[in-house]
Amino acid sequence: MDPDLESDLLGIQLSGSDDEVNDAEPAEGNAPKKSDTSASAGRTAQSEEEFQAVRKEYRVKVENGEIWKTINLPLGPGRVPKHEAQALLHAVEELYFFRRYAEGAQFARTALGGDGDGGGEHGAPQLDNDTRRLLQYYEKKCTEKAEKN
């Protein structure tokens, strides 16, 4: 091996006037790992017992095509909050993803204020334009796919 590559030519340590102040810090290359610092130990206020209690009660949320069952339809004539509108979209997207096209089309029609038979919009919920447009899109796509199958 080339002796020039093994030399400490580039491994020099610069000294400054604050070296006396920073003598408590470890030398370069011997820096403590993040897990060794006391700051990481105090980053959570949760005790081990509390963690174990939460861990014991924790249940994984599994989404398997049943989001639509958690939504109460019809929505009613009032303005629909953003989080409920997003849940509507997630539900119809999930039905579409699982290729349950007839159910997806029916759900989208009902969410848009129809009676499920392509009914009118009398008493329709007040959805924002983006949500309404996406529900209409999914209703159309689900209907088309359901007719092909």
Tell me what the structure shows:
This protein has 149 residues and is mostly helical. The protein starts with 37 loop residues before the first helix and ends with a helix. It is 41% helix and 0% strand. Helix 3 runs parallel beside helix 5 (129-148) and helix 4 runs antiparallel to helix 5. It has helices spanning 38-41, 48-57, 82-97, 101-111, 129-148.
What's a concise summary of this model?
This protein is mostly helical. The chain has helices at residues 38-41, 48-57, 82-97, 101-111, 129-148.
Features:
149 residues; elongated; 5 helices; mainly alpha
Strand and helix map with partners:
Layout: H1 38-41, H2 48-57, H3 82-97, H4 101-111, H5 129-148
Which structural class do you get from the secondary structure elements?
Answer: mainly alpha
Secondary-structure element sequence?
HHHHH
User: If you average the pLDDT, what whole number results?
Assistant: 75
Q: CA-to-CA gap between the ends? A: 71 Å
Query: Can you summarize the main beta sheet?
Result: none
What is the radius of gyration computed over CA atoms, rounded to a whole number of angstroms? 30 Å
Helicity level, as a percent range?
40-55%
Total helices: the number is 5
| Topology, number of strands | 0
Could you list the spans in which at least 5 consecutive residues all have pLDDT below 50? 115-121
**Outline:** elongated
Binned strand content: under 5%
